[in-house]
Design goal:
The chain folds into two domains: about 190 residues, Prim-pol fold; about 80 residues, no CATH class. Helices cover about 35% and strands about 15% of the residues. Strands 3, 4, 5, 6, 8 and 9 form a six-stranded mixed β-sheet that branches. Strands 1-2-7 form a three-stranded antiparallel β-sheet, with helices on one face. The longest helix has 16 residues.
């Protein structure tokens, strides 16, 4: 399926789309005042338009965007609505089985829904009630789920797109439409995260956590408990979450994450590189 065919497939199912950067381009097509297209290190994920207002379900507009230009497909999550006005929620698992593991831990089975295979895991598409306002927060899943969620004023890269690694985003079962979000997951996402002190935090990390009000506690624990082979991936994920939540305290967040990363054996240079990449690509999925 070509990118254009994939975009048309999406709008036929009432998903609102827009063009995004493609890793095959010589220069990132992403836009935005804070985005440095020449230095972009997270190719294939940045909107090529102001997606919150420039998105469409019109076939002719979609053809103009994707017929002759090399572009990935963005899905404007906040602009998508179900038959009854439901809002879209996309659960982004950073590894296969991530959302299934959390469901099992909470005593539930995974609810099958429209699923898109990504470079690392899956995007699961769910509908949530129209009156429910979700964002990108993980709620009670913070520090427990290896991934993200996207709802409200957010986007994801859609099927038919190409990841920087060359992997194509693919719908697992084209006959499976999104279903209603299971109650356990909706309750978890709307609950407050439970802060837990890191079990093995270094002295400098503990001091920085206190100075930032403790909001990094769960994320630092996630980094500190990284198994061999997953330290960089976990640091990158935690850094992105921290910067999304951190506001003006980015330097304190980076310091805390650097302490945690070096404590588990990453070199300072490697950790700084990972944290810098996370900062540059924060809020992008």
């Amino acid at each position: 399926m070509s990118t254009l065919d994939a975009a048309l497939w999406l709008i036929e199912r009432d998903f609102t789309v827009f063009p995004a950067d493609h890793p095959g381009l010589a220069r990132c097509a992403g836009v935005g005042r804070a985005h440095d297209a020449d230095a972009c290190a997270d190719r294939g994920k940045h909107p090529a338009v102001a997606f919150t207002r420039t998105h469409s379900t019109d076939p002719e507009q979609v053809r103009r965007w994707f017929r002759s230009r090399l572009r990935n497909i963005g899905v404007a999550v906040g602009a998508c609505r179900g038959a009854g006005g439901e809002r879209l929620l996309v659960v982004d698992s950073d590894r296969p089985g991530a959302i299934e593991d959390v469901a099992t831990q909470d005593g539930h089975g995974h609810t099958a829904t429209m699923r898109v295979r990504t470079a690392k895991g899956y995007h699961d598409y769910y509908w949530v009630p129209a009156e429910t306002r979700l964002g990108n927060g993980l709620g009670a899943l913070l520090g427990r789920f290896d991934g993200d969620v996207r709802s409200g004023n957010a986007y994801v890269i859609g099927p038919g797109s190409v990841h920087a690694t060359g992997v194509i985003y693919e719908v697992v079962d084209e006959s499976q439409a999104p279903v209603q979000c299971p109650g356990w997951l909706l309750n978890a996402l709307t609950a407050q995260p439970v802060p837990r002190q890191p079990a093995r935090a270094a002295v400098g990390t503990r001091r920085t956590v206190r100075s930032t009000g403790g909001r990094l506690t769960a994320l630092l624990r996630f980094v500190l408990e990284s198994p061999a082979g997953e330290r960089n991936n976990r640091l990158y994920w935690a850094a992105r979450r921290a910067f999304e939540q951190g506001g003006a305290a980015d330097s304190s967040l980076a310091s805390a994450l650097l302490d945690a990363a070096t404590h588990i054996g990453l070199s300072e240079a490697e950790a700084r590189h990972t944290i810098t990449n996370a900062y540059r690509s924060k809020a992008v999925q």
